[in-house]
Amino acid sequence: MAERTIYIVSKDDVTVVRDGSSPPISSDIIDHAQNGDAFSWQNPHDLKLTFSNELTALTFDDADGVLSDDPFFRSTVTDQQLTQQVEIDGITYTPNEETVRWKDPAPVNVENEYEVTLYDDAGNEYRMVGVSITEGYSTTVVGVTFDGPFPPPGTTLHYIQGVSTYNGFGQTLAIPPDPVCFLAGTLIETPDGPRAIETLKAGMQVVTLKNAAQDLRWIGRNTVCGLGRLAPVCIKAGALDNRRDLYVSPNHRILIRSSLAELNFGQGEVLVPAKALVNGMSILRAPMRRADYLHLMLDTHDLVFSEGIASESLFTGHVAMSTLGADALAELNEIFPDRRHISQTASHMGLTLRETQYLMHQARPDAVNTVRLGAG
């Protein structure tokens, strides 16, 4: 499983009023909608909804890249178990390892409870998703997210009787994964020595772990707000045998070698997300207003050497491609009209955040090593 994060507006930060009136509707329409189209049957009027700019992160294990309704098989939770504690509207939800719903403590999972179509003043359609947390057999809609971009700040969305649609069974939401990339300024090893990543161009060669030198097929670049979930992880010089400080996106994966990894996961070399290594001292978050991230794509998924240690190139699996912006995807489609030619197989087994934290907790400091340039 992979660990995914979605962002919601908590239900206390959603205001619902009847169109043409100002007092907020007193009923908890966001939560009640899990029992049917509460937007319609509780309040048979057109409605206006506004949303706070405050977002809350929900992080959970995911097997298939989508947030679905009822991830259960009989009394067992099969997907979307919460992995990080979160407080929403004054209530704290704490993850645990249990999967059987009737046990105590009960498993805690995230669900796509319903979807409803809303419209802005210009008639643009938004698909709002009610997101719930289920503890055992108790389900509460804790907030909403959107399939696609959130409405711009200050936008009012409308529920229109007879036009807006509601669905509360079997709906799914594709989960956008975070980008996996290096911060500008990172030194990447080439046959001619280390070069700053932003100076590399398609057609140049980089040194890789498995395939000696490989040609760069494509380089992408995204400038994002480097605060919150996209804040880079800084691996201080020497923390993982790296030559200088290495800055990567939180989900960028580093290759580590460990006998404990082989014992627990059947592989002695595994890819681990940088955010799972954060210790607040030698490896820490480095928030910045603007993060200039770059991707490197090779013909074959492999590990490049960044500041001397092995970390992954862009993996072009279906889910990974959804991390790229529209301009990047358009460029890729122009370079590779038949996208089947860039389908890749991951070079190494990847661990989730929870698996990595378990491994690091079990290991002595000298029992986990990075794979570095020149090391066997």
Can you describe what's shown?
This protein is mainly beta and 376 residues long. Helix content is 10%, strand content 40%. The chain is built from six helices and 30 strands. Strands 4-1-12-11-10-14 form a six-stranded antiparallel sheet. It has a four-stranded antiparallel sheet with strand order 16-26-20-19, with no helix packed on it. A four-stranded mixed sheet has the order 29-24-23-30. The chain is globular, with a radius of gyration of 23 Å. The model has no long low-confidence stretch (mean pLDDT 85).
Number of strands: 30
Q: What would the principal axes of the Cα set say about the shape?
A: globular
Helix content: 10-25%
The neighbouring-strand order within the major sheet is 4-1-12-11-10-14
Strand content: 35-45%
Oligomer: single chain
- Average pLDDT number: 85
> How large is the count of helical segments?
6
Distance between the termini: 30 Å
Q: How many strands, what sense, and barrel or not for the largest sheet?
A: 6 strands, antiparallel
Structural class: mainly beta
Uncertain residue ranges: none
What Rg is obtained from the alpha carbons, in whole angstroms?
Answer: 23 Å
